[in-house]
Structures are given as C-alpha cells and as structure tokens.
Write a structure and sequence with these properties.
Keywords: Flavoprotein, FMN, NADP, Oxidoreductase. One of its GO terms (molecular function) is NADP binding. This protein is mainly alpha-helical. Helix content is about 35%, strand content about 5%. It is built from 4 helices and 2 strands. Helix 2 links the parallel strand 1 and strand 2.
C-alpha cells in the first residue's frame, strides 16, 4: 500500500519513518488479503514493530536497500537474529563494525 511519491510534489501530510502505514492498516482492516506497508521504513526495529503489532503483513524497504545494500545484515544484528547467514561470504566484509 503506497500513497505515491513518484511526483516532484510534496505530500500534504507529515512525512516520517512509516508515514504510509496508517493508510495500509486501514486497507488491511477492510480486506482479507495480505497488505504490505511502505514509507521510509529505514529502521529494523520499526519494521519489526509493524509486523509484530500486525499493522501490515509485510514491509517493503526498496529505497532503503538502494541506500544501504547491506541493510539485511545490519537488521539481523540490531534484532539479535543469530541464525541469519549472508548469502555468501562476500557479505561478511559488510558486517564489520556493526
């Protein structure tokens, strides 16, 4: 569920991490299919919170992954997911410092 964001026009509502989630939550309450949420979901803890509180069924982090390709490694560290394994060892260089 997205309200747009492809035009050079500024939205007429506040923009913050997860700002489109209230729209997705309203849609989720009205339909019986999975609903995804978007909108500056850069924080692993925010993404996890949205899922754990059942506000959305899936979070989309497309632009976040463009800005930070190793976001999944970072998220696993922040969320203490000790079972996470990068696809291959080339990603281990990106885990240093987290």
């Amino acid at each position: 569920m997205s309200t747009g964001g492809l035009l050079p026009l500024a939205p007429n509502f506040p923009v913050y991490g997860g700002y489109q989630i209230p729209f997705a939550t309203q849609i989720k309450q009205a339909v019986s299919i999975p609903v995804t949420g978007v909108g500056l979901i850069d924080s692993p803890t925010l993404a996890e919170h949205l899922l754990q509180t059942n506000q959305v069924d899936l979070v989309e982090i497309g632009r976040t992954l463009i800005r930070e390709p190793n976001w999944l490694v970072h998220a696993a560290h922040v969320l203490h997911d000790h079972d996470f394994a990068p696809y291959n060892h080339s990603y281990e260089r990106g885990t240093k410092g987290y």
